[in-house]
Amino acid sequence: MAIKSNSRRKFIKSAAAIGSASLVPTGMAGTIAPLVAKSQSMESNPQIDQSLIGNYGPYVTGNLGDPPSLSFRHPDFDDLEKWRPQALKKTMELVAPPSMTINTPRVTTKDKFEYDGLQIELLEWQLGYGRPTEAVFMKPVNAKGTLPGVLGLHDHGGQKYFGKRKISRTSDKMHPMMEEHYQHYYSGHAWGNELAKNGYAVLVHDTFTFGSRRVLYQDITGIEWGPCRVDDKTDENPEDPKNIEIYNTWAANHEHIMAKSLFCAGTTWPAMTLVEDQVALDILSARSDVDENNLGCCGLSGGGLRTDYLGGLDHRVKCAVSVGFMSTWRDFLLNKSQTHTWMAYTPLLPNYLDFPEVLGLRVPLPTMVLNDNEDDLYTLPEMHRADKILKAVYEKAGVPDNYKAIFYPGEHKFDAQMQKDAFDWFDKWLKG
What we know:
The structure is a single chain. The radius of gyration is 22 Å and the shape is globular. The model is unreliable at 1-46 (pLDDT under 50). The protein is an alpha/beta fold. The protein starts with 28 loop residues before the first helix and ends with a helix. 44% of the residues are buried. It has twelve helices and nine strands. It has a single domain (107-431), classed as Rossmann fold (3-Layer(aba) Sandwich).
């Protein structure tokens, strides 16, 4: 999952079906031979003698090319403008956004007021599927003209009951579960508000399966996971932490079902999140008080993951800051797939790009990655390897100064110092 917390999710750990060379039909031996050869050459590697999938690790790891076939690091590519269309086309093909057309929806302003030096707007829009999306727009009181805009991407945290409230606040009154969340991961700050105070127009929206976009138990049929009254309109106190914990546990158990169902629809979880984040970017960029040529996005953990996909695939994002979600497919394969949400995985994409290269599709656009050395959602060597991959991409493109990574002491977080560094990066590229 994206964030370790008291409501940390229990993911399904069932294994995938296993093939055998002895079962390969006649005529297919040539297809599987290269993979067998790769795996045999890696069998003695002590780093992968043990893995999440046991001694199958060396075999399947042998399928990962380094660099993968569409990596800009590959010697076959030396022209950025010729490489990018190929890589983007294949990545979008595999991410597989739904084929249905989603037009920019009509936005309704539910309320407008001032709070803590900011002009706040509570917004809502209907995508045409699911319930309406709720969002918060913030900018400094008395701001003049157009401002650089940043899409604030909330985290996962195993708390699907909440979305935008994880990084934005609109009053002094705050849910106790969010107070704990802010203290643990954000130095007590609503970083969306803090960025807005620095002279930005910030939009924070609930994305697919979170907050106002969450799956409601009352809409589900065919599965039962005990009492879950948090979404029952007759419940007198749906915000009771006990009810929310029940819902979050249920939503965790439902996540693998959602992922499998999306595969059956010919799409993926990253696609659903990407589409909804792109609609939010449409809405932000269309505002008369936002400079559509100076847009950014940022988020921690699940929000960092969303930054990796949105920043990599939508180049309206001039400046991207990914926090607490950067490693390699190899790390997920061997060590850490169980610590992450189904939101992360695009089948077959590792054949073409390593995970950091999804974000690297935005080269030469400015990109920052913030990491924590003791983050137990990844292994430190693979986090550093991801950094080297992105550095190599930007260096080969001739723009090494457009990429920056920082490693901080401590566990998974986006604390005050990290926020300052991120805001300074935005200032450099969106204001400078």
